[in-house]
Design goal:
heterodimer, A: alpha+beta, 8-stranded mixed sheet, 8 strands, B: Peroxisomal Thiolase, Chain A, domain 1, 3-stranded mixed sheet, 11 helices
């Protein structure tokens, strides 16, 4: 295999009808159909009480999938570098700020403003686990998962240290929601390492390819609809392959108009 | 890291459009800050607004990206032959081998703020409002990539005020990994109501002109800016300077207050020096984050002082440009290149009485001396820290 090589050591998943990575394996393997039901966001118990009260849906979502991936990987989060990627970021906070700013004498909430930054989820995670390792927060609209995967795998392949990649989107409140429809909360997380460990699930080899290579699709119609509707769900063909123990041997994921990612698995 | 050539760089701030007006203002110790004029903001403060942004015409083939932030980006690209340099890189390496990594904190948020003031009776946004090309955080990188016809990997880093320092790291890693050969990096952030009211709500917005390192400093002045740099695997002509090292860390402490001892900042500076293979004594000048909030300057002084000798000359240029938020890292990298090319360590402006509690050697007037290596700090909400080490062209 050519391309950037990394190992997957842990996976987290949360979405409509997908309660966790562990609970979604039968769906991803095609043993059961995906039965859509609204995403249930767990309370972010890792956060100190003050931050827990302030945490919006996007933070709860990101922390939930990060927690599952780290637990499965049996890796110490206090030294773990992170890449967070999201198309929607803090859409609910931005909506609330825009509503306030449209009033005659706006009174902006300092907490709302602080938590409106695109890296709010990353900041909360690093506070929650007490990590001073490097962290970045990316956005590439519909290609946000691809951006995060390139950044994370490049860092792991060059630097050698493991990395937590978190990709997630939450729907916007109206009226923004109509201009950027997202069906429900959806997120996933991967713990990536540079070498094989006893927890390793699969080896990935990632390369940039042109848009002439077609993106892989999901056999399950509901999963496929999710893949097309949510930017982070562009990763679903990879998750399907991971759930099936590395088969098929390669998937192609959407990234930009002119670029896709080909991921070899073994 | 292996050093990386910076073959073109430009910045547009309240000091002017391009390198020459910026250098002239720095040489004259002139600030670009003025009493706020932006929209209907009612509170007293100073801002660093860029002249002429509203009159900019976005190229017609990317007209759906029209918003103040992308107008500022397009204005910023017009100077110092940057568009021509990017075109030359596209020809030299191929469009698919040139990446675009830009930082912004608020993207085209003003566009949405204004749309919310014009909702119809059902609460809907005005017809024609397009979220993706304007407010989405990716908008400015998507716009610049399309405007410059670059097809390499592209994304926006949005880690608040460290965003456009961190993009230098993205470019360096992707070039080292062999995915690309060159990248357009930088940052664009433009005035909007969210940041003015938001920093005011946190009592971090000064009612006066911002005064980094002053004993009576009481907050920041918001600026807007577009800054761009072209990084290439190998220069074909003598470069403007070199990217020598990038260091990144997180505080893991608080969303909006820096760690009081600057532990995250220390980690970022040490990582940048290690990445460059340099010792603290190799740095001639430090461009501080220096926002002029009481806690930020105190924490940064403690952090810088624990890594560097207290005699190392340093200053914040935010007294001249204002705090350009997600563009600050790119702006200050471009200023660092000017400092090295012209042997100018720029003074920190607006200081009436230097804070005696801060121990670093803060420059109160310009110093003319050879500058071979600069460390530039950028720290942001969410505890995000980035430090760059830049080297002179030789």
């Amino acid at each position: 295999m050519s391309g950037l090589k990394v190992w997957v050591q842990g996976v987290g998943l949360l979405g409509p009808g997908l309660a966790s990575w562990a609970n979604s394996l039968d769906v991803l393997r095609g043993v059961q159909p995906l039965v859509a039901s609204p995403t249930v966001l767990p309370a972010p118990l890792r956060l100190p009480p003050a931050e827990r009260r302030r945490a919006g849906a996007s933070v709860k979502l990101a922390l939930a999938v990060a927690d599952e991936a780290v637990a499965q990987a049996q890796i110490d989060p206090t030294t773990l570098a992170t890449v967070f990627t999201s198309s929607s970021g803090e859409g609910a906070n931005c909506h609330a700020l825009c509503e306030t700013l449209a009033t005659p004498a706006p009174m902006v909430s300092p907490t709302r403003f602080t938590n409106s930054v695109h890296n709010a989820a990353a900041g909360c995670w690093h506070i929650a686990v007490g990590s001073r390792a490097s962290s970045t927060s990316l956005c590439a609209f519909d290609g946000s998962f691809g951006a995060g995967l390139i950044e994370a795998t490049t860092s792991v392949a060059l630097g050698g240290a493991p990395m937590l990649l978190v990709a997630s989107e939450s729907p916007y409140p109206e009226p923004l929601g109509r201009t950027r429809p997202l069906p429900d909360h959806f997120g996933l997380a991967l713990v990536l390492t540079s070498t094989e460990t006893t927890q390793s699930i699969a080896a990935l080899s990632i390369e940039l390819v042109g848009a002439d290579q077609a993106a892989s699709t999901c056999d399950d119609a509901t999963l496929e609809a999710l893949r097309r509707a949510v930017p982070s769900a562009a990763a679903l063909p990879l998750l399907v392959a991971l759930a099936r123990g590395g088969a098929p041997g390669a998937v192609v994921l959407d990234y930009l108009d002119t670029t896709r990612l080909r991921i070899g698995l073994r | 890291m292996k050093r990386l050539a910076i073959t073109s760089a430009t910045l547009t701030t309240a000091l002017g459009g391009g390198n020459a007006p910026t250098l002239a203002a720095l040489q004259a110790e002139r600030t670009g800050l003025a009493a706020v004029r932006f929209m209907d903001f009612p509170l007293p403060t100073f801002t660093g607004e860029v002249d002429g942004v509203d009159a900019v015409q976005i190229p017609s083939h990317v007209s759906e990206f029209d918003c103040r932030n992308n107008r500022l980006a397009w204005l910023g690209l017009q100077h110092d032959g940057f568009i021509q340099a990017a075109a030359a890189a596209r020809t030299r390496w191929g469009a698919r081998r040139v990446g675009v990594f830009l930082g912004t904190s608020t993207s085209g948020l003003l566009h949405t703020e204004l749309a919310y003031r014009h909702r119809d009776a059902d609460g809907a946004l005005p017809a024609g409002f397009q979220y993706g090309p304007t407010q989405n955080t990716f908008s400015v990188a998507d716009f610049v990539a399309r405007a410059l016809q670059l097809d390499g990997p592209a994304w926006v880093v949005s880690t608040a005020c460290s965003s456009s320092a961190k993009v230098f790291g993205n470019a360096a890693r992707l070039i080292e990994a062999g995915l690309i050969d060159a990248a357009v990096v930088g940052g664009v952030d433009s005035m909007c109501l969210t940041t003015l009211y938001g920093f005011n709500s946190l009592e971090l917005l000064s009612s006066e002109i911002c005064r980094p390192w002053d004993a009576l400093r009481n907050g920041l002045s918001i600026g807007e800016a577009a800054a761009f740099a072209l990084l290439e695997r190998e220069p074909s002509t003598p470069p403007q300077g070199w990217l020598l090292g990038v260091g990144e860390s997180n505080d893991g402490y608080h969303m909006s207050t820096p760690h009081p001892e600057g532990l995250g900042a220390i980690a970022a500076m040490r990582a940048a020096l290690a990445d460059a293979g340099l010792e603290p004594g190799d740095i001639d000048y430090i461009n501080l984050h220096g926002t002029a909030t009481p806690s930020n300057d105190a924490a940064e002084d403690a952090a810088v002082g624990s890594v560097f000798c207290a005699a190392t000359p340093c200053s914040s240029t935010k007294g001249a440009t204002g705090h350009t938020l997600g563009a600050a890292g790119g702006v200050e990298a471009a200023i660092a290149l000017l400092a090295m090319r012209h042997g100018l360590m720029p003074a920190g402006l607006n200081v009436s009485a230097r804070d005696p509690a801060l121990r670093m050697h803060y420059l109160l007037e310009n110093r003319l001396a050879p500058v071979r290596r600069v460390l530039s700090n950028s720290f942001g909400f969410g505890g995000s820290n980035a430090s760059l080490v830049l080297g002179a062209a030789e």
